[in-house]
Structure formats: structure tokens, C-alpha cells
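Practice problem: predict the structure.
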Amino acid sequence: MDRYFAMVYLTEANEHRDAWQELQRALKSYRGEGLPQDEALARETFDRIHRQGKAFSAFCYAFMHEHGLGVGRDPDLSLKHYTQAAETFASESATVPASMSNLGFMYAQGKGVKQDPTKAADSFRRAAEAGFAMAKVNLGLCRLNGWGVPRDTKAAFALFRDAADSGNGAGAACVGQMLRDGIDVQPDPAAAMRYLAAAAEAGDAGAWFELGLGYDLGLGVDVDKEEAIKWYTLAAADGSAEAQARLGAILASPGRSELEFKKAGTLLEFASDQGSDYADYYRGFLQLYGARWQKPNPISARLIALSLQDRKSLHGDRLLARIFDHGGAVGRDPKRAASLFRKAALAGDAESQLEMGIRHERSDGVERDLIEAYAWLSLAAPVRATGAARLLDQLRPQLSLEEIRRAEALAQERRLPSQLTRELQFDEK
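Answer:
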């Protein structure tokens, strides 16, 4: 199978993508890691960023020497150019809010200056007060995570919303994810989708992935695999390993064509090359159960599971649980399967939470305990793709009000807070 196949590229979205994202994507294109190898595309990106100004030119040269992209890897030259970029941003910061924000990025990353979260946050604050939307997103991330400033989730949400209201895609994506997942705010799925859609239309690649994930798993919306494919495809073409892995899983599912299955294999390989645990999990899943165009190989599945466990990934626990449940290569062991599913469930894995709910209801590898079953299904229910909400409705009449109260309290003890995954932004726009 040809390793590289035609993907969808939205070149018009380049104007919305910040310089740091562009450089990361160029690195993938240059090396063929997660994207088809295309040195010309990488060089085009470098040239475009060079033309944005003296500081960006120095930053780009520094990045190239740091990673050996078209030039020799040279830490000393890299440091020299990063220092030049930082000095230029500092000299412009009094009059150019974007330069002040970019200086904050360099303090946060420790590039050309000594890493200093406090100075980074202060630079973002000053640029935000001057009205620079991207700095509001950066300061919001500092507030949300306690980077260089006291943690203040309400202030973070307000900053993200201000940025979103000015048309900033990253700000809209942050608001959308916080509203969807209830990250220190009251969940509002309808408003979340509006913000995520606005972010996606603005060309925010993170929003492409989040929309795909929402439709794939049913996070506040009905499950819609075709809509998930649409958004995953955009994020996958931009180099997102998780989007490639999730898209590959959909295209490899039953009912898909042989061509789609082949594309799935390529996507999973791309994602695995970038270190995606989910990609390796799904490759192991296919090895365990097989598919229309692939024979099962339980031994290979077990090796993948053990490798994931070595990386402390919950996906390794879930895959090994499935192996002990299936019996391939090791013999069926319901108790061992339940123990591993429980470990992954406690780490927040919705599929494993569903499994624990079913097993406690059926007494499969664990004692029958309807309170435990109800608690685990409650945790999995917000992910509509699991079908846990329907099972919960069927289980509810079998419990007293006091038992339901105890189950809900148990679920609350085990519920892990959702987290916002977003990198700091770097650009002049």
C-alpha cells in the first residue's frame, strides 16, 4: 500500500494559522512525520514567515537550525537567531502589541531568553490590555493553568470570550470546549457548538478536531460519523495525530469500503509515527478482532498492549482488558479483564466505564452490584456514543432512591475534571 495518499489541504486557511503552528506543520512536512513528505511546502512556509518581518525571519532561521531543516543542526546558531528575534520583539513591544505578545511567547518557551512564566504572563497582559486578541487567549491560558499568575478560571473564560467576540478563532475554540465539557463553567452544549463552529470557520485547526470529536463521541450532540469525518479530515490534513487516529478508526469500522480501510491503515500509521496512543490502541484492536480485509493476530495485539502499558497509557490497559476478555493469545480471564477495565475507567476512559457498568450488572468478572453499575454508567453517559444513557434508564427502576443517591455520590467521587488542551499562540496577526 502506498504510504502517502492524497489528503485535503486548505491553503486558504494559512492566513488564519499562527506562525508557530505553521512552523510545526512545516517540520512535519519536511520530515514526512504525520504528513506526506514535501520539502517544497516546508520551504514555502519558511519563506512566507521570513517575509513577515525581521524578528520572524530570525525566529524562522533559529527554528531551522534547531531542527536541521534544510540547514545543519546548530544549537549555537539557533540560540543566536532566537536571541535576535527576542531582542527585536522587545524593541517593538512599546508600540506593537503583537510584538509584546510574541515576547511573552518566547519567555514562556525559553527561546532566546531565560524561561520565565511570570514575565511571559505579564507580556501577555500588557498586549491584551492594548487590545491584541491573541494575547487575550495566551493570558487566558496562563490564568486557566496558573502559569506565571494565580489560577483564575473565571478570568480565563472572560478573556477567551473577549477574544472570540473580536473574531479570534482560538478564543472561540477555547470558549466552545469549556462550555461543552463544563470546564469550570456551567455546561451549555448548544452555545458550545456555536463557538466551535465559529472557530472552525475562522480556520482554527484545534476546533476542527474538537468538532470531529464531538460528533464522533456524541459530546453534547447526537453522534454523526459523517460529520465527524468532515472535521477530522481537515484536522488530519493539518497534521493532527489524534485527528488522523480517530479518522482512521472510523474508516476501518464495519461497513466501510476496502479503499477506506486502506486509507485508515495509512492514517493510523501517520498517527502512530507521531506517538498517538489511540492510533496504536486501534491498530491493536484490529489485530485482536480482525476485519474484513485483515486477519486477526492476537499475539501482535498483546505486544501493542504491553508497549502502551510501558508508556503508562490507559489505552494499554483497555486493550489488554479486551485481550483477556476475548481470550486471544492468553486465554479468557474475566477477572483480569475487569481489573484492567477498572484501572482505565478510573483514569477517565468512557468505554471502560461502560464496560464496568455492564460487568457489575451482569456479574462478569466482578460481583453483581447495581449501585456500582449505576455509578459507572453515570460516568460514561455524557459520551453518547457509549450508549450508557440508555442502559442507565433501564437500570434505574431496579434501584431505590437511596441506592441511586449512593451511586451518584460514588460517581461524583470518581469523576475527573475535564481539561482544556491548547498551546500558546505566536503570531503578528
